[in-house]
Amino acid sequence: MDKTMEQSVLKELDFESVNADLFDFLDRSPNAFFAVRNMKAALEEAGFVRLQESERWDLRAGGAYYVTRNDSALIAFRIPEKVFTGFQIMASHCDSPVFKIKTNSEITVEKKYIKLNVEKYGGALCAPWLDRPLSVAGRVIAETEEGIETRLVNIDRDLLIIPNLAIHFNREANDGYRFNLQKDMLPLLGEISDHPADGGGEGGAGAQDKRFLALIAGEAGVMPGQILDADLYIYCRMKAAHVGLHNEYIAGGRLDDLQCAFASLQGILQAEPTDSVAVHCVFDNEEVGSGSKQGAAGTFLYDTLHRINAAMGRTEEDYMRAVASSFLVSADNAHAVHPNHPDKSDPTNRPYMNRGIVIKYNASQRYVTDAVSASIFRSICRKAGVPFQTFANRSDMLGGSTLGQIALSQVSLNAVDIGLPQLAMHSPYETAGAKDTAYLVEAARLLFSGSVQSEGDGRYTLKFGK
């Protein structure tokens, strides 16, 4: 993008407002369950109607709807007023590398300390989790008179900490350290007191798990005996913030990939679809391979697209034709050039924060981008007036993969892998550019408002909305 176009974008986009809303979303979304709950609230406020997978779908032209699966994945869609020609999809994920609390979680130490037994979820960086205020959030499954009920819980206070070992006991700590997940990463919950509820200071079998269970039950509004099971995770309590000499960066938890999920949500809220169904898709479990019913390897997207097609009175042939004129943007954050390790980046494809959306390439198809899909997305960015840049891994280094490749195993269509440039990926507190979220919001809005009409392999007509 030339300098004149970029300067016009800077004047038009409200970066400050977008970042304020992003910060609020990040801080209120400690894990996938809360991210989905917060997206549901925003969609319902905008008039989207909730659908249940277990019920019949009655859809209408011009309608806006959403459906969830497992309370941790969500698909929202807008149907245009006229007969649609395809689906314009942006897919992201709402899970992040973290530590999950195991069942039977309490461990007592020296008849004094209480710590929680946890296991790693995804490829988390361990060191940044130490010596930070942490807490617990997730879902509780409770037994009620009506059956089984799910309740979200968030202990909204500084509850836990994973204390580092003093350098006096490990003089080689700064020379490189291999973390033992069962020994080094267990968070401290508190002390065993002389109170009878704590087992009189002995921490015996009768007291096992009563303290933590009672805390979670109180937050869920149920009795401890009603809790059947739970999916609970620890999270970093540090709030999202601006950093940098001119506030040019943002920092916060779960930027990978809530930054893209937020931008996609804002895009569909602002979109005015004309020829295609706009589809905002947020999966769970990307960080552990997507192999779940709520992940990209499941049938959530496939099922939803088919049900939209059928509910609108269309045939299977109509569906196949629509897929051929559809486009998927797999949006998962990208690696910016690191200021302390610039040598880790490719010599010629070097994304920087605040320089726009990143189009990601990989010859082995770990990213689904090809020349056709990249060209379509470049056209969308140019029409939206937002900058874009490119990423490829160094040829001597393996990189990560995204949900795009996995989603295509369920629904085959043209797709591109993109992301927003960031530092410290998979840390509990990550860094990104203060301008890039607004760029993706605008590109998502245009994607959802337009259409990609297939005229045969390699030939496409692009129609853009307002």
How would you describe the overall organization of this protein?
The protein has ten helices and 22 strands. The protein has a nine-stranded mixed β-sheet, with helices on both faces. The protein has a six-stranded antiparallel β-sheet with strand order 8-7-10-5-6-9, with helices on both faces. Strands 11-12-20-19-15 form a five-stranded mixed β-sheet, covered by helices on one side. A hairpin with a 6-residue loop joins strand 19 (421-423) and strand 20. The chain folds into two domains: 3-96 and 253-463, Zn peptidases (Aminopeptidase), CATH 3.40.630; 98-236, Roll (Aminopeptidase i, Domain 2). It has helices at residues 3-12, 15-27, 32-45, 210-220, 255-270, 300-311, 316-324, 371-384, 403-407, 436-449, and strands spanning 49-51, 64-69, 73-78, 86-93, 98-109, 113-121, 134-144, 147-154, 188-191, 227-236, 241-243, 249-252, 276-283, 327-331, 334-335, 357-361, 388-392, 414-419, 421-423, 430-433, 451-454, 460-463. The chain is α/β, with parallel strands linked by helices.
Structural class of the secondary elements? alpha/beta
Count of separate DSSP helical elements: 10
Strand order, main sheet: write it out: 1-2-3-13-4-14-18-16-17
Q: What percentage of amino acids are in beta strands?
A: 25-35%
Measure the end-to-end span: 21 Å
CATH class of the largest domain: Alpha Beta
The CATH architecture classification of the largest domain is 3-Layer(aba) Sandwich
Mean pLDDT: 92
Tell me roughly what share of residues is in helical segments: 25-40%
What name does CATH use for the topology of the largest domain?
Answer: Aminopeptidase
Strands, total number: 22
The best one-word shape is globular
Largest sheet: 9 strands, mixed
Low-confidence stretches: 200-208
CATH superfamily of the largest domain: Zn peptidases
| Total count of domains | 2
**What Rg, in angstroms, do the CA atoms define?**
23 Å
